[in-house]
Amino acid sequence: MAAGKTALATLLADRFGARLVTEPVAENPFLAAFHADRRKHAFQVQLFFLISRYQLQQELFQQDLFNQVTVADHLFAKDRIFAALNLDADELALYQRVHALLGARTVKPDLVIYLQARLEVLVSRVRRRGREFERHIEPAYFDALARAYNEFFFHYQDTPLLVVNTSELDLDGSTPTEIDALVQVIRRHRKGVAHYNPAGSR
Fold first, then answer.
1. CA distances (Å), 49 to each of 4, 140, 162, in order?
2. Using 50, 70 and 90 to split pLDDT, how confident is the model at 1?
């Protein structure tokens, strides 16, 4: 959600000489229609993302995970955030059954990094990246999504979790010094939950 996930994943893959795995957002044929009418197209867009993310997970299983570091810009489990926010009760019940079935066959990461930013920063970054289908998203939806993310990761316990405030750290234009500092924090974190606030973030 414009916090810098793909930018960070790309930077880390470069630093660690790692395999980079990115989710195929632009390939979702229902995305533009979803942003025009979320109620009508929510289930289709969610199911496409779920299947696509699961396919990426299966590709990871088939590769040699033990001899190469892998960095991904998404977490399979967080797919439920959008589902809970956008699906009606019956759709959500069906989605949860499918998610539970597929989720049992996914790769568990060694570390999850959750990037946070103030709402006005997120909205500004979304507008700046200029995706046509995002042009008319109202701030209220961004606010609801940010709250849902915060709620999800507040209760997240599946893996070590590092929460990073990127309000003052634009990962698309960060300096080598800023990235060095973040990488050092990432290398040190091995268990539980930790928070990192770069200088100037609040």
1. 19, 23, 24
2. low
Q: What is the CATH number of the domain that holds 128?
A: 3.40.50.300
Is 61 contained in some domain?
A: yes
Q: Which domain holds residue 106?
A: 5-196
Residue range 20-39: mean pLDDT, rounded:
87
Domain count, the chain: 1
Asked whether the beta carbons of 3 and 116 are under 8 A apart, the reply is yes
Distance between CA 35 and CA 5 in Å, rounded? Answer: 21
The Cα–Cα gap between 114 and 150 comes to 9
Decide if pLDDT at 65 tops 70: no
Instruction: Answer yes or no: is 202 within a domain.
Output: no
For residue 105, pLDDT over 90 is answered with: no
Could you tell me if residue 140 is inside a domain? yes
Look at residue 201 and tell me if it is in a domain. Answer: no
What is residue 129's predicted lDDT score, i.e. its pLDDT? 77
CA 193 to chain centre: 17
